[in-house]
Amino acid sequence: MYSKKESRYENCEETARWLRDRVRTPPCIAIICGSGLGLLADTLCDPQVFSYSQIPNFPTSTVPGHAGELVFGTLQGKSCVCMKGRFHVYEGYPLWKVTLPVRVFKLMGVQVLLVTNAAGSLCETYRTGDLMIIRDHINMPGLASLNPLIGPNDDRFGPRFPSLWDTYDPNLRSTALEITHRLGHAKLTHEGVYCMVGGPNFESVAEAKFLRLLGADAVGMSTAPEAVVAKHCGMRVFGLSLITNRVAQGYEGQEAVDHNSVLEVSKWRSQILQDLVTELVATICCQVDNDQQPY
Ligand SMILES: O=P(O)(O)O[C@H]1O[C@H](CO)[C@@H](O)[C@H]1O
Ligand SMILES: Nc1nc2[nH]cnc2c(=O)[nH]1
Fold first, then answer.
1. CATH architecture, domain defined by 9-248+255-283
2. Which of 30, 57, 156, 165 could be a cystine partner for 105, CB 3.0 to 4.6 Å?
3. ipTM, 2 dp
């Protein structure tokens, strides 16, 4: 799971330097696009696109709906990088690799991470197509020692024992809520707890009931490791789930979920999600790190 050689600071530095040598403006905001939600990246102005396969040390995307491209450009005048496709543990990647892009972004000067995902609803009042602003998460693999911070701690990234009580930035959350009201989406927006499971199977009924009892409002197979690593290295984090399906908590009258239906709902609702993220980016104050620090 953990490889000292491959997860070291110098690898992230090499990738960051490779990108920084090529991008016109280093980013101050990073956006990770969830399943089927990559269209946001197409709205960046003055884009520069890199296929993951070109980038040193980067994994490649293997999941439909994750194009496998890094797009640099500006959104609302802010210098951004968008991951059109993320990495998941179920693809066979170790957690340090799943989260490597976040550390690379940190070394490029990113201060704010916006994470989106497709998720199933466990909360009775959420409907398919709703949005959930992530207030907190339950990192199920993390609780069982599958945590991206396991291994020798490199203090250049962050402390050995980071606190996670305020991982999802309260100011970004309240600003996002205001925006959804302004855009007329208040009725379909919730704030709740995202639970990450390893996947790739969707939940059994008993598992879904168990996760609900634990306090989870939505469940997916990503996001928590990225948020943990971003918080560890001092970034502000905002998380947004698109509810693509209801998770069955009974044995009758439920429709089975599959990845195609997840992608269909993402396509249907991606404009709403894009509008919210775009408006949120407009409110974020951050400075482009133009000097070559920290390397
Ligand atoms: O979390 P994202 O990448 O949005 O993808 C979600 O959608 C896929 C299942 O359809 C899983 O990968 C789940 O995590
Ligand atoms: N684990 C999990 N991931 C999802 N991603 C989208 N929907 C779901 C779901 O119902 N369960």
1. 3-Layer(aba) Sandwich (3.40)
2. 30
3. 0.99
